[in-house]
Amino acid sequence: MPDGKQGSSGIWEERWHPLREEWVVVAAHRQNRPWAGETVAPAEPRTPSYVPDCYLCPGNLRVSGARNPPYEGVFVFDNDHPCVGVDAPENPSPAPAPYRSRPARGTARVVCYTPRHDLSLAELTPLEVENLLAAWQAQYLDLGSRPEVNNVLAFENKGEVVGVSNPHPHGQIYATNFVFKTIETEAAATRRYMNETGRVLFQDIIAAEQRDGRRVVCENETAIAFLPYFARYAYEVFVAPKATHPNVAALDDAEARDLAAVLRDVVIRFDNLWGMSFPYVMPLHQSPTDGGDYRSFHFHIEFHPPLRKPHLLKYLAGPEIGGGNFLSDTAPEEKAAELRAQPTVHYKTRQDV
C-alpha cells in the first residue's frame, strides 16, 4: 500500500457494476475530508397521526377535488399531478435532425402505505409491510397487463432532502409506454450474461456476497439484503428474493412474507443508525411488461440514500455529472458492518418503552 494514499479504510480502486455496466470509483479515504458546505439537520418535529390539510390523509380533499375514502390500510389512487398520462399527444411536434421525439404516455399512481400521517415504512407492523407488498403485486399485474404499458416502475422518495413535499408515508407507480433507461440497461446486461454463461447474473451476485459475508446486512430463508460490492452510495442496500423472479408479482406467499420481513428489517436499521428518519430513494427493479424474454431478470429493491453522515449529503459533482462515473467516498464493507450492528427494534419504540 503506498504511504498515505489509502487511509484507514484501505480502499482506493474501481469496482465494476455488472447490472449498470459501468465502473464505480471507490475512494473511501475521502469520507473524512474537510467540509465547509451546507449541511442537513436531522430535526424531527412531532407529527400528528392525522393532518387536516394533508391531501393523503383519509377523508381529506385532494387538489383535483376528489375526496379520499376513510381508508384503513393501503390506499392507491391515480396521481392528480402525473408526469405521464393516457392523453399525451399522439403525434408530438417533429424534432429537427439529429433530434427525435415520441409520445410519453402512461398512468401514474400514488400508494399510501397507511392512514397514519406520523409513521414511515420503518414504523409499520410486519403485516402492514406484507400488505404493501401485496398492493405492489396487484398493481404490477393490473398495470402491466395493459397493452399500452411496457414498464411498471414502483418507487418511494423519502425525506425532504430528496424533494418530498408531503411526509405522509407513500410511494408512487409510473406505468409507461417506454422502458426506463436503468431497467433497459439491466435487462440487456442480464440477458447477455445468461447467453454467455448460462447463469443468472443476480444469482452470481448473491452467491458472491454470501461467500464474502462482509456486506450482507441480514437474510432469512428466502430473502437477503446486502450492500453490493459496487455500491455507489454510502448506505446503498439491495433487498432481493434468493430465487430468481422477474417481478414482485411472481413471488409466492412465503417468499413475499420473507421479503417483507427483510425489507422492514433494513429500513428499521436505517432509522436506528443515527436515531432519525432516514431519507432514501427506493425503486423496485422489475422486468418490463413489453412481452420480451426476461428469464434472466431478477426482481429486487434498491435503496439509494443521499446521506453519508447524519448532516452530510452525497453531492453529485464533476465525476458523476461531468464524467459519468460514480465516485463513492465510503467502503461498502464498513457501512454494511454499521447497519448490521443496529438493533431491529425501531428507536422510537425503544424510547417509548
Description:
It is a single chain. 25% of the residues lie in helices and 20% in strands. By secondary structure, it is of the alpha+beta class. A nine-stranded antiparallel beta sheet has the order 3-4-6-5-10-11-9-8-7, with helices on both faces. β12 (307-309) and β13 form a beta hairpin. The longest helix has 22 residues, at 253-274. The N and C termini lie far apart (49 Å).
Compile the SSE list and pairings.
Layout: E1 12-17, E2 22-27, E3 75-78, E4 106-112, H1 126-144, E5 151-158, E6 170-176, H2 181-197, H3 201-212, E7 216-219, E8 223-226, E9 237-241, H4 253-274, E10 280-285, E11 300-303, E12 307-309, E13 312-313, H5 318-322, E14 326-328, H6 332-340, H7 347-352
Parallel strand pairs: 2-14
Antiparallel strand pairs: 1-2, 3-4, 4-6, 5-6, 5-10, 7-8, 8-9, 9-11, 10-11, 12-13
Give a brief description.
The chain has one domain (14-30, 51-90, 101-352): HIT-like (HIT family, subunit A). The protein has 7 helices and 14 strands.
**What's the count of strands?**
14
Strand order of the largest sheet: 3-4-6-5-10-11-9-8-7
Supply the CATH class. Answer: Alpha Beta
Tell me the CATH architecture.
2-Layer Sandwich
Please name the fourth-level CATH homologous superfamily: HIT-like
What is the gyration radius calculated from CA atoms?
A: 21 Å
| Main beta-sheet strand count, sense and barrel state | 9 strands, antiparallel
**What characteristic shape results from the CA principal axes?**
globular
First and last CA, distance:
49 Å
Summing up helix and strand content along with how strands pair, one would put the structural category as alpha+beta
**Helical proportion?**
25-40%
* Overall average residue pLDDT: 90
